[in-house]
Design goal:
Rossmann fold; about 35% helix; 8 helices; binds adenosine-5'-triphosphate; single chain; about 15% strand; binds magnesium ion; alpha/beta
Length: about 200
């Protein structure tokens, strides 16, 4: 089995995440791409209030409902505590013995990989997939620079200048979220009054 692991805070999920997931799945012929919702995103703690994990998971579930080969994963939420990718990779290896794990990240995250917990452990157990992201320099994984030692692929996706940060701001100031977040997820966001939305 070939599994894509796209981790994130998804606060909230947006079409940038989904376009990355479906294109990586297609290009690398993956069976499934798991959108793994971070329980406690340790790198974001203390910087801003993070929406409760259950709400972020509900948005991801609504967004991928009916999308073939893309699934919401509660693995890190069920595990609880701070979410480290090294632990998530271990859990996936246990659940799917013999699977090839492809860790999908945007170019912005590629620059910070060195700060991750037990990163060497992760490096030896996955293939890295880097997708381009507007505002971040292109990376050449597996060949040069900080990612030279990784088994890696680069997948070119349509450049979408969309971020959860901007969407939180849009929502709080009443600007449209339409076509930036899948409609079913917008409905959940409104039902739960997230990001300054009124019922
Ligand atoms: P925030 O602004 O809160 O950091 P975000 O939009 O960066 O949110 P994350 O949940 O932090 O979303 O990102 C999860 C993963 O998806 C990361 O690897 C990130 O690089 C990638 N990603 C997010 N948005 C895009 C995009 N528009 N294009 C390509 N990759 C993206
Ligand atoms: Mg981010």
């Amino acid at each position: 089995m070939r599994i894509g692991l796209l981790g994130g805070t998804f606060d909230p999920i947006h079409v940038g995440h989904l376009v990355a997931a479906v294109n990586v799945r297609h290009e690398l012929s993956l069976d499934v791409v798991l959108l793994v919702v971070a329980n406690h995103p340790w790198q974001k703690i203390g910087q801003r209030p993070v929406t409760p994990a259950a709400d972020r998971l509900a948005l991801v579930r609504a967004a991928v409902e009916g999308v073939e080969g893309i699934e919401a994963s509660a693995l890190e939420i069920d595990r609880g505590g701070i979410s480290y990718t090294a632990d998530t990779v271990s859990e996936l290896e246990e659940r799917f013995p013999g699977a090839e794990i492809h860790l999908v990240i945007g170019a912005d995250v590629a620059m910070q990989l060195g700060t991750w917990e037990r990163i060497e452990e992760v490096r030896t157990r996955v293939r890295l997939v880097v997708v381009n992201r507007p505002g971040s320099a292109a990376v050449n994984p597996g060949r040069e620079g900080p990612l030279a030692r990784w088994k890696a692929d680069a997948v070119e996706i349509p450049a979408l200048e969309i971020s959860s940060t901007d969407l939180r701001d849009r929502s709080a100031t009443g600007r449209p979220l339409d076509f930036l977040i899948p409609e079913p997820a917008i409905r959940v966001l409104r039902e739960r009054c997230l990001y300054g939305q009124e019922r």
